[in-house]
C-alpha cells in the first residue's frame, strides 16, 4: 500500500513538473525586479498597502551620534554588510538621503537612533549580543542628555531597528532571551525586528516585523535561465540537529527539523540535506516548495529567498508573525504547516490542488511582492525601506494623550534589568 502511495505521488509530481515546464519562471533584479511569468495582483487592501508612497506622509529626524555607535563598528568588520542582520546598517544609510528626512527636529514625526547593535561578530560570522544592551542604553542616555525629544515621550515617538534573533531581548537562546525580556528603556519605542512570534515576551505590542537582510546583488548573480523547469518538488538545505547546543535533541527547532529528516530523507519527492551547495540559489529556482522551518528562532532568510525565487514557502513555525503581514498576503502565497504535522508533510503538499499551486506562483511573480522583501542599494519604490516608512506613517498621527508625558511624569525605570546591562559601554 505504501509503495502504491509513493508511486501515485511520483505520478502527481511528474504532472506538476509538466505544468511548470510550460511556464516561464520569474526573474529578479538586484536593482529592478522583472518577471515574464504570468502574475496576479494582490487583491484588496494588501495590494494597495504595498504600493503606498510614504513620502509626504511623515518626517523623520536622524540623530547624529558619535561614530563609535555605528561607522567605526562597521569599519572594524565589513562582514556586517552581508549578514542577515544588516538591515540596521542599510536603514541608516537610506534615511540619511531619504526624502522623509528632516533636519529640523521640531517638525519631526519620528526620531531614529542609528546604533549597530548586531555588528559584533564571532570568527564564524555569528553576532554576539552581549554588548548590545549596554550599547543601546549608552546611546539613549546620550540623546536624552543632548536633545529634549526623548524625555518628552520617553521614546514613544522614536523607532529602532533590533534585528537580533529575539529582537530587543538581545540573546540568541530563547530561554535566556525570555529571562532577559525587552530592554526596559525600549518599552515605549516602536521596534522593527526580524523576530516575530505571537504571545512572546520578545515581541511587544506595536512592533513591526521586517524581513531579514538578503543581499540582492548576490541573488541577482545566481539567476538561472528563464526556461529552466521546476523539477524539485520540495527543497531544503540546513541543520536538522544542533548537536553542539542541543546534544540531547528535541529542543532545537522544537524537533520540527529533526522530524523532516527522519521522515523524508529517503523520500524521492524531498531534496533535503545539511549540505549547502554552491547551487543553493539555483536549486531554489528549480523547486516548487521550499521548506522554511523554525530553528532557534522562528525566522530565517529562507523566507526572503523563497519569495524572491518564486518557490512557495512552506512555513513551519507555530505562531510566527511574518514580515509586513498587513501588506503581504502570506496565507495566499505560502503554505502553513503546524510543527506537530511535519510527519505528514508529503501528504499535505501532494494534496494541494494544482490550480492552487499555480495561483500561489502567479502571486509570487508579482514584482511588488518581491520588492517589499528586499533592502536594495540604491533604494527602489516599494522596497523594504519604504515598507518600514509605511508602517511608521500608518501609526500617525500620534495620540498625544499616550505618547507625550505630563510635566514631571516618568514611566521608564532606568535601573531595571540585569546588573550587567547597567555597566558603562
UniProtKB/TrEMBL annotation:
<dbReference type="GO" id="GO:0047517">
    <property type="term" value="F:1,4-beta-D-xylan synthase activity"/>
</dbReference>
<dbReference type="GO" id="GO:0000139">
    <property type="term" value="C:Golgi membrane"/>
</dbReference>
<dbReference type="GO" id="GO:0080116">
    <property type="term" value="F:glucuronoxylan glucuronosyltransferase activity"/>
</dbReference>
<feature type="signal peptide">
    <location>
        <begin position="1"/>
        <end position="22"/>
    </location>
</feature>
<comment type="similarity">
    <text>Belongs to the glycosyltransferase 47 family.</text>
</comment>
<dbReference type="GO" id="GO:0010417">
    <property type="term" value="P:glucuronoxylan biosynthetic process"/>
</dbReference>
<keyword id="KW-0328">Glycosyltransferase</keyword>
<dbReference type="GO" id="GO:0009834">
    <property type="term" value="P:plant-type secondary cell wall biogenesis"/>
</dbReference>
<dbReference type="InterPro" id="IPR004263">
    <property type="entry name" value="Exostosin"/>
</dbReference>
<feature type="domain" description="Exostosin GT47">
    <location>
        <begin position="57"/>
        <end position="352"/>
    </location>
</feature>
<keyword id="KW-0812">Transmembrane</keyword>
<keyword id="KW-0333">Golgi apparatus</keyword>
<dbReference type="Pfam" id="PF03016">
    <property type="entry name" value="Exostosin_GT47"/>
</dbReference>
<keyword id="KW-0735">Signal-anchor</keyword>
<keyword id="KW-0732">Signal</keyword>
<dbReference type="InterPro" id="IPR040911">
    <property type="entry name" value="Exostosin_GT47"/>
</dbReference>
<keyword id="KW-0808">Transferase</keyword>
<protein>
    <recommendedName>
        <fullName>Exostosin GT47 domain-containing protein</fullName>
    </recommendedName>
</protein>
Amino acid at each position: 500500500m505504501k509503495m502504491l502511495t509513493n508511486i501515485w505521488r511520483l505520478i502527481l509530481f511528474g504532472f506538476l513538473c509538466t505544468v511548470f515546464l510550460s511556464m516561464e519562471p520569474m526573474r529578479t533584479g538586484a536593482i529592478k525586479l522583472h518577471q515574464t511569468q504570468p502574475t496576479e495582483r494582490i487583491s484588496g487592501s494588501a495590494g494597495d498597502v504595498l504600493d503606498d508612497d510614504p513620502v509626504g506622509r511623515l518626517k523623520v529626524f536622524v540623530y547624529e551620534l558619535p561614530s563609535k555607535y555605528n561607522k567605526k563598528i562597521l569599519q572594524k568588520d565589513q562582514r556586517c554588510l552581508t549578514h542577515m542582520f544588516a538591515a540596521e546598517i542599510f536603514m541608516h544609510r537610506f534615511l540619511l538621503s531619504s526624502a522623509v528626512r528632516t533636519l529640523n527636529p521640531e517638525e519631526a514625526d519620528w526620531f531614529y537612533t542609528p546604533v549597530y547593535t548586531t555588528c559584533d561578530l564571532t570568527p564564524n560570522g555569528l553576532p554576539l549580543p552581549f554588548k548590545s544592551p549596554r550599547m543601546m542604553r549608552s546611546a539613549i542616555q546620550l540623546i536624552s542628555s543632548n536633545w529634549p525629544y526623548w524625555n518628552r515621550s520617553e521614546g514613544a515617538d522614536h523607532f529602532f531597528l533590533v534585528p537580533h534573533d529575539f529582537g530587543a531581548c538581545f540573546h540568541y537562546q530563547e530561554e535566556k532571551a525570555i529571562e532577559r525580556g525587552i530592554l526596559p528603556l525600549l518599552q515605549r519605542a516602536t521596534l522593527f525586528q526580524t523576530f516575530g512570534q505571537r504571545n512572546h515576551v520578545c515581541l511587544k505590542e506595536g512592533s513591526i516585523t521586517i524581513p531579514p537582510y538578503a543581499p540582492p546583488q548576490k541573488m541577482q548573480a545566481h539567476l538561472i535561465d528563464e526556461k529552466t523547469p521546476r523539477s524539485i518538488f520540495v527543497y531544503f538545505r540546513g541543520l536538522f540537529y544542533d548537536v553542539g547546543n542541543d546534544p540531547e535533541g528535541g529542543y532545537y527547532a522544537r524537533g520540527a527539523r529533526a522530524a523532516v529528516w527522519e521522515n523524508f530523507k529517503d523520500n524521492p519527492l524531498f531534496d533535503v540535506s545539511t549540505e549547502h551547495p554552491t547551487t543553493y540559489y539555483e536549486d531554489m529556482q528549480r523547486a516548487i516548495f521550499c521548506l522554511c522551518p523554525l530553528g532557534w528562532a522562528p525566522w530565517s532568510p529562507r523566507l526572503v529567498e523563497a519569495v524572491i525565487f518564486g518557490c512557495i514557502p512552506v512555513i513551519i513555525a507555530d505562531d510566527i508573525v511574518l514580515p509586513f503581514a498587513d501588506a503581504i498576503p502570506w496565507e495566499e502565497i505560502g503554505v502553513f504547516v503546524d510543527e506537530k504535522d511535519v510527519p505528514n508533510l508529503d501528504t499535505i503538499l501532494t494534496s494541494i490542488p494544482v490550480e492552487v499551486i499555480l495561483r500561489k506562483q502567479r502571486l509570487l511573480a508579482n514584482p511588488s511582492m518581491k520588492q517589499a522583501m528586499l533592502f536594495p542599494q540604491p533604494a527602489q519604490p516599494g522596497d523594504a525601506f519604504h515598507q518600514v516608512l509605511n508602517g511608521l506613517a500608518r501609526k500617525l498621527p500620534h495620540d498625544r494623550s499616550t505618547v507625550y508625558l505630563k510635566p514631571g511624569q516618568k514611566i521608564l525605570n532606568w535601573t531595571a534589568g540585569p546588573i550587567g546591562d547597567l555597566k558603562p559601554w
